[in-house]
Amino acid sequence: MKVLLLLVFATLSFQYGDSAMSEAQMKAALKLVRNVCQPKFKTTNEQIDAMHNGDWGMEKNAKCYLWCILNMHKLISKENTFEWETGVATLTAQAPESLRPTAVASIQNCKDAVKTPSDKCLAAYEIAHCIYLDNPEKYFLP
After folding, report:
1. In the chain, what is the straight-line distance between the N-terminal and C-terminal CA atoms, in Å?
2. Model confidence pLDDT, tens digit, residues 15-73
3. Which domain holds residue 78?
4. Angle between helix 23-40 and 45-52 (nearest 10)
5. Biggest distance spanned by C-alpha atoms of the chain
6. Per the domain annotation, does 114 fall within a domain?
7. How many domains is the chain partitioned into structurally?
C-alpha cells in the first residue's frame, strides 16, 4: 500500500509540479547519500570538509567514499568510466535552477576525467576532483 501511495504521489508531482528539486530537497538528498556512504568507508567529517575546502590530498577511504557517491547516482560504470551523460540528464531534470547551469557545465567539462579506470576509488576521485577544480564555488557533491 505504501508503495502504491508513493507511486501516485510521484506521478502527480511530475505531472502537475515542477519536477526539479528545490534547494532544500537537493540538500536533503545529498545529506542522505552522504549518510549512506560515509559510514561504509569510515570517512570522517574532517576528511569531507577538507575536500570541500580544496584539500584533495586524501586517504583511500575518502576516495572510496567518492566512489560510493558517484555509484549511488549512477555516475560511474562497472568499468569505472564517468557516466557523464547520465549526470547531465539527471541534473537537467532534477537540479534546482540555481545549480543546474554550472553543474551541467562541470559535468561536461570533466567527461574525460578518468585516467585510472583500473581502480574504482581513484577513478571516482579523478571525476570528483575535476568537478571541484572546474568550479570550486559551485561544487555540488556531498
Report:
1. 32
2. 334 568 888 888 888 899 999 999 999 999 999 999 999 999 999 999 999 999 999 99
3. 21-138
4. 130
5. 48
6. yes
7. 1
